[in-house]
């Protein structure tokens, strides 16, 4: 076996599509967007000259130190201990060179006892963060006629979609960077109102994904006023509810916006609409409770992947673990 850099976009994307098509953060274009902000490596694992695994690694510089992050990866054609161990040995050497405190992986594989046992046997432990990056998500099967999709929604959701249409809510689609500036302003206001840290790199993602028609900005207007907006990613078989923003209001504009996204995803031939993260029902204090209720109203089901895993490389990791655990508990995740 050997590990070497991959520079061929088609080779990379073919492997993602074949073995983990839902892994947005392992897409080539997302990597190109992040490259403008961070250092990344794209590695391929080969056995007898055959590509059997890939890893898109990002060097994260946080306040408490440096770590290597493999979001939605690594991706392996077959999950075997020897393959993951070979990758891990390489990552440990790279992490040492980069003075990283730990390695974090979050492959989108089943949260099964077998997979949990595999990562634990190699020294990984559950990351002290909440279920993020769509590892516990709500998805809707789009392989149905629109009438059946509407019928599968919660009665209230269906009513509010019709009410928004009746009162003249308008949903527009845009790929214009000028409109993105409007979104970012609204997004900043939303972050302040709900007390969350806004994502960095949205402008870079929009610019890069747009090159392959993989992203679209949906905007919801009532009486010519922008009330909500969402950035939707179209990648492989999925449409993904990636970022959103809104003003406080009682107009059901968000409901019609999501319905228009669903119809656009069907027009593009997507088989799944991924509403992204939701709150586990047992988490009564979870800050996503209201948003989760909204998403679940459109019908669908929960998919759960393996929780993000950390491989500590320094005693200083203990500080990160304690602080992140406390923060997660305090916020109700």
Q: Spell out the CATH superfamily of the largest domain.
A: Gcn5-related N-acetyltransferase (GNAT)
Characterize the overall form. Answer: globular
The overall pLDDT average reads: 96
Structural class: alpha+beta
The residue fraction in helices comes out at: 25-40%
CATH architecture of the largest domain: 3-Layer(aba) Sandwich
- Sequence of secondary-structure elements: EHHEEEEHEHEEHHEHHEEEHEHEEH
How many individual β-strands? 15
Biggest sheet layout: 8 strands, mixed
Beta strand % = 25-35%
Poorly predicted segments: none
End-to-end C-alpha gap: 40 Å
Q: How many whole angstroms does the radius of gyration measure?
A: 20 Å
Summed up, the helix count is 11
What is the CATH topology assignment of the largest domain?
Aminopeptidase
- Reading off the top of the CATH hierarchy, the class of the largest domain is best stated as Alpha Beta
Count of domains: 2
For this entry, give a set of tags.
Aminopeptidase; 39% helix; 2 domains; 8-stranded mixed beta sheet; alpha+beta; 7-stranded mixed beta sheet; 333 residues; 15 strands
């Amino acid at each position: 076996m050997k590990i070497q850099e991959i520079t061929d976009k088609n080779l990379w994307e073919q492997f993602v599509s074949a073995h983990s098509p839902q892994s947005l953060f392992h897409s080539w274009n997302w990597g190109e967007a992040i490259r403008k902000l961070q250092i990344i490596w794209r590695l391929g694992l080969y056995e007898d000259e055959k590509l059997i695994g890939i890893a898109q690694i990002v060097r994260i510089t946080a306040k408490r130190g440096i770590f290597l992050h493999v979001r939605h990866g690594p991706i392996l054609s077959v999950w075997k201990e020897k393959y993951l161990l070979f990758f891990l040995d390489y990552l440990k050497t790279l992490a040492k060179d980069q003075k990283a405190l730990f390695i974090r992986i979050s492959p989108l594989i089943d949260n099964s006892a077998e997979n949990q046992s595999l990562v634990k046997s190699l020294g990984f432990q559950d990351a002290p963060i909440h279920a993020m990056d769509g590892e516990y998500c709500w998805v809707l099967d789009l392989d149905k006629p629109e009438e059946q999709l509407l019928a599968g929604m919660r009665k209230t959701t269906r009513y509010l979609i019709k009410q928004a249409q009746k009162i003249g809510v308008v949903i527009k689609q845009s790929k214009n960077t000028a409109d993105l500036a409007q979104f970012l302003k609204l997004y900043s206001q939303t972050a302040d109102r709900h007390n969350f840290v806004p994502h960095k790199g949205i402008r870079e993602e929009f610019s890069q994904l747009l090159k392959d028609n993989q992203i679209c900005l949906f905007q919801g207007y009532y009486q010519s006023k922008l009330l909500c907006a969402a950035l939707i990613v179209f990648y492989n078989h999925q449409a993904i509810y990636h970022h959103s923003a809104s003003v406080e209001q009682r107009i059901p504009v968000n409901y019609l916006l999501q319905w228009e996204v669903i119809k656009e995803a069907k027009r593009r031939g997507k088989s799944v609409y991924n509403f992204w993260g939701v709150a586990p029902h047992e988490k009564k204090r979870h800050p996503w409770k209201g948003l989760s209720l909204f998403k679940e109203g459109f019908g669908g089901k929960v998919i759960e992947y393996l929780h993000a895993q950390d491989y500590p490389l320094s005693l200083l990791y203990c500080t990160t673990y304690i602080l992140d655990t406390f923060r997660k508990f305090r916020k109700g995740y």
